[in-house]
Design the sequence.
């Protein structure tokens, strides 16, 4: 009787490696050889564990979205003013770890794949809606305490802020001037006054 071989690698670890490769290079520019080399596993193991390249990409996107959502939630928790919590969401994009690729995998996917990959587009849309909902909850909280203006509906302010957040995620890929990006954030957040 033949026994199934156990995996000789940590699935979460190699998925994280795939996520970083896709995040840095994008879907189209990432070859199967890039993935096999970067993940440190055999091609057969990759197919057996994750399926084809597209399935692996979707799993990597889901992982990125979950990590990103968790980070955003944790930045807005605690006893800090609402406007400061919203500012932290933007500043986390500008002042992020040098170890991570620049920009945002979700924004990259929106630009690269959304026009011809409905599954990728749906995942991006879901993640974007989650972020916008988080911002809307914060805006509503700030409006209820008087910290944020009520002259505009919370949903409209959240949509505006989310749009600006996506824009900052694009700009960090090319802009080396963090002070300019901070000025853009400060100007954007003035809409809350």
Sequence:
């Amino acid at each position: 009787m033949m026994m199934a071989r156990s995996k000789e690698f940590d699935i979460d670890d190699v998925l994280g490696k795939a996520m970083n490769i896709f995040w840095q290079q994008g879907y189209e520019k990432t070859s199967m050889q890039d993935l096999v080399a970067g993940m440190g596993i055999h091609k057969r193991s990759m197919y057996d564990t994750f399926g084809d390249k597209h399935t692996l990409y979707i799993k990597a996107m889901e992982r990125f979205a979950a990590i990103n959502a968790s980070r955003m939630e944790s930045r807005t928790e605690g006893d800090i003013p609402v406007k400061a919590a919203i500012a932290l969401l933007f500043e986390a994009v500008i002042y992020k770890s040098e170890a991570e690729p620049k920009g945002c995998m979700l924004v990259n996917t929106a630009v690269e794949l959304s026009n011809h990959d409905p599954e990728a587009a749906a995942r991006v849309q879901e993640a974007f809606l989650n972020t916008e909902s988080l911002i809307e909850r914060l805006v509503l909280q700030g409006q209820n305490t008087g910290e944020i203006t009520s002259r505009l509906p919370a949903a409209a302010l959240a949509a505006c802020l989310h749009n600006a957040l996506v824009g900052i995620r694009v700009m960090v890929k090319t802009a080396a001037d963090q002070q300019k990006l901070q000025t853009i954030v400060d100007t954007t957040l003035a809409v809350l006054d």
